[in-house]
Amino acid sequence: MIDPAPSVLPTAESVLDRLARDAAVTPAMAAAAAAPLAELIAVLRPTRREGPEAAVARLDALVTILVQRPALAQALGARLRGLLLARMHRTLYGESGLLASQGFLSGLWSRLLGRLLPPAPDPDFLRDLVAELFDEPRDAAWLAAVPARTWAGLFAALEVDGPAFAEVRAHCRAECLEAMRLVSGRLAALGVEPAMLRVQPSLTRRESPFLAQADAVRRIIEADGRAGRDALEALLDECTAQVAAIRRRAHETGVAVSLVFVLARLEQHVERLRTLARMAVPDAAEPAEARHTRVIGFFVRVAGAESRRFRLGDLFEGTTALIARRITEHASRSGEHYITETRAEWVGMFRKAAGAGLLVGVMALLKMLSQALGMPPFWHALSNSLIYGGGFVVIHLLHLTIATKQPAITAASLAAALDRTRDPDGRLDAIAALSAQVSRTQFISILGNVAVGFVTALGIALMAGTFLDWHPVGEAKALRLMHDLHPWESLLLFHAAIAGVWLFLSGLISGYYDNQALFHRIPDRIRRLKWLRRVVGPRMVERIADRAEHDTGAVIGSFLFGCLLGSTATVGRLIGVPLDIRHVSFAAANLAYALTTLGPSVRPGEFAVAALGVALIGVVNLVVSFALALRVALRSRGLGPDDTRGLTRRVLRRFVAAPLDFVRPPR
Questions:
Q1: In the prediction, which pLDDT does 335 show?
Q2: What CA–CA distance (Å, rounded) separates 167 from 155?
Q3: Where are the domains of the chain?
């Protein structure tokens, strides 16, 4: 614990002494009266080198001062009463921390303007005062770290529940009711947005809870808060159920970006209205401590939101999280097909991976032949992109599998497993069990890709050399391939990481286009094409529509992934940066082609180093793509480090108890 006595006590006490000497605050002086409070907050705020515990220690010291010197507590209380009574609270209660209706670009512009030219505070609104007092983005962290006992001590020292604050309490309650009116109106408007009605037409055919809650709020306000909130709580529960139903329906019909934002705003407004109702109309039997805890928690949230009001990072993170959820919802559905539970599924996955390995050996050969043509950079990149992209599309259409493409998809399934339960232990157990399934699936898939790809390339090269006296690669190219597989004498790990990033992006692309196909009802549109029915017949049209529904995202994602792999090296050469990719399946095939050319000149140690390079490429491909995909999937569901704390320990414990479960399914 940091000792605040040497520096903090005199500084805080001097600010309080100045408050005690000032005259009582009137509404006309409210703006100027905020300066001493800003100084006091600056005293409490930890420096950049300190942690939140420093602020807690200083606030504890401040409470001690107030208890020991009641005159200072009275002066601080008088200043707070004057400020709270002179300002409207409704915008702070009803807007802070909620997503605005503005789009990304307008939000970006307003935040840039706010950082470059901070807005002049309006003395009529409490929100502006809070933003003025808590103007550092790190304020949210130390405010959240203050324990309940410290806040309770501060409330007791200021006698917040005493008669002196009676008028303030009444004013806060009245403003809370007005904030309910504000939030309720916006919630009603969001509930009838066209994006909502498109997915849930039933909202127009019966009483909508989003509209009905406005009447319940009006009754509470007209009764001055004396009416019960049970009816409102029930309607808010219906609103939450409607949002959940729309999300489930969106899994089948696709979802527009506009609907993603509307649903996020709906959830926020429902929870804010529920919180305001519980503060304005508390249960009669609820103890004062519980009410204080609720009010403090709400204050910490809105003050933290105001402290980060103009932070650009929050805008980018919030926007990408919403869009990522839109994409990863569909990626998680695809990911379920790449997780094996039974031995039959495990063996079937090996067959699919082995089939892909056969094609990888051929694709690697085509790439060698393309390079031998000596084409200009653009045509070289185009040729490689078509070889990679076309090959991956064929692999998908033949229902085969490339192991390294799975992590970007299965990560979304892991995040979905976390999202299915609110119990922390249940979350960790679910994801630990799923991790074992993913691990054994990856193991058998990589084994099929690498082993069969290596053997296929080896067989092609040996047959070409035996029957045609031709080697797919010359000696110079073979030496270059061996060098490219050296873990520490080449940029192998960096290039493997680039491939991992492209794998991650391909998963997002697949999810995006799966969603687009569903949302725009592409399969139904294909079925309505009369000219296509005349040309190929109704049965073929139905097959095409079915493939469009199930394969659009995977085909586009696979092809664009191939384009990324095929063009990276060319782009690197054009801009003078050593960019390239290393993919484990193709690395194994390249090793086979190099070995057949170099023959006995390859020493066992050199082969071992190259084999190690192939293994490291596989590890980096998987780790990078999986880590990026899991991070995006977790963020899209509002899950952070706290939700996964202890996961590594659970997975290790499961591995120690049953290590073979991570390699093959249990019997």
A1: 45
A2: 16
A3: 1-86, 88-146+159-310, 332-493+581-662
Distances (CA, A) of 241 to 141, 210, 235, 245, 329: 32, 11, 10, 6, 19
Q: Please tell me the distance from the alpha carbon of residue 149 to that of residue 339, in angstroms, as a whole number.
A: 48
Count of all residues that appear for the chain in the document: 667
Is 359 within 8 Å of 457 (Cβ atoms)?
no
407-419 helix and 604-636 helix, angle to the nearest 10 degrees: 40
Q: Which of 502, 557, 375 is nearest to 383 (CA)?
A: 375
Asked if 567 and 555 count as a contact pair (C-beta separation under 8 A), the reply is no
Name the amino acid, one letter, at 505: L
Q: C-alpha 267: how far from its chain's center?
A: 17
Name which residue leads in pLDDT, 345 or 417: 345
| C-beta of residue 199 within 8 angstroms of C-beta of residue 259 | yes
Which tokens hold the place of 332? Answer: 């998680």
CA distance 30 to 84: 9
306: nearest Cα among 62, 114, 470, 536:
114
Instruction: Tell which wins on pLDDT, 111 or 217.
Output: 217
CA distances from 423 to 417, 418, 427 (A): 12, 9, 6
**Average pLDDT over every residue of 136-154:** 87
Amino acid, single-letter form, for residue 153: G
More confident residue, 635 or 536: 536
SS3 88: strand
Residue range 300-327, pLDDT digits in tens: 888 888 877 766 656 556 655 656 666 6
Gap between the Cα atoms of 150 and 300, Å rounded:
13
Which tokens sit at 209? Answer: 């809870």
Is residue 497 helix, strand or coil? helix
Going by pLDDT thresholds of 50, 70 and 90, the confidence category of residue 196 is: confident
- Give the helix ranges, DSSP H, for 69-136: 70-85, 90-95, 104-116, 126-133
- Chain centroid, CA 84 distance in Å: 37
Closest by CA to 403, choosing from 570, 189, 617, 242, is: 617
Average pLDDT (577-600) is: 91
For residue 125, give the 3-state DSSP assignment. strand
Question: In angstroms, what CA-CA distances link 400 with 313, 349, 449?
Answer: 40, 8, 10
Based on its alpha-carbon atoms, the radius of gyration of the chain, rounded to whole angstroms, reads 32
Q: Which whole-number Å values give the CA distances from 294 to 160, 169, 289, in the listed order?
A: 15, 15, 9
- CA 546 – CA 238 distance, rounded (Å): 35
66's CB contacts (< 8 A; 6+ apart) are: 16, 72, 73, 76, 154, 157, 158
Distances (CA, A) of 567 to 384, 572, 585: 7, 9, 18
Is 504 in contact with 511 (CB distance < 8 Å)? no
Per residue in 547-587, pLDDT tens? 888 888 888 988 999 999 999 999 999 999 999 999 999 99
Residue type, 105: L
Q: 2: helix, coil or strand? A: coil
Q: Which amino acid is at 253?
A: T
Q: Residue 556 and residue 554: Cα distance in Å, rounded?
A: 6
